[in-house]
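Today's session is about reading a structure prediction critically. Students often jump straight to the picture, but the first step is always the sequence itself: look for stretches that repeat, for charged clusters, for runs of hydrophobic residues. Only then move on to the predicted structure, which in these notes is written as discrete structure tokens rather than atom positions. Here is the chain we will use throughout the hour.
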Amino acid sequence: MKSGSLCKIPQNDRGVANLIEYIMVSGVLMGLLIVMLLLVNSNIMEGPADRLSYVAFTDIGNGISTRIVDVYAVAPRNGTVTTIFDIPDDVAGKDYFVEIGPGANAADQNVVVTRGLITSEVSLAGVGATRGVKGNTTGKGLNRISYDSRGV
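Below is the predicted structure for this chain, in token form.
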């Protein structure tokens, strides 16, 4: 037996070990990437969109409340007043719903702008205490506020 024959063991194991290491590291990184992609949508994209929607809903509620107060300010003793206005068609790419409803007290009324779990309530600034206001709408198309002294 030659003394150098022990060193002639094939070195193919080194290449296979590198390949297995590459596959294992790539697999772990792909798993982390998949987990990250699942979390990115809810934490990085939906959270700010929901905050933006709440602020926009508050602005829309304030605008509608102001328009109702303006109609109340010019309401005739006998007759009707109608105004047409436009609010954004959608907020953050999604539709929303507006409803004028009762507030915390029996005399108060609120403008409630909602979509799913996001809700904004804006007070009608005392109009509900003297005249009942009710109705609902969405952002699509033109919207109308009407006052009729007969109460119809």
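Discussion point for the tutorial: The chain has a mean pLDDT of 84.
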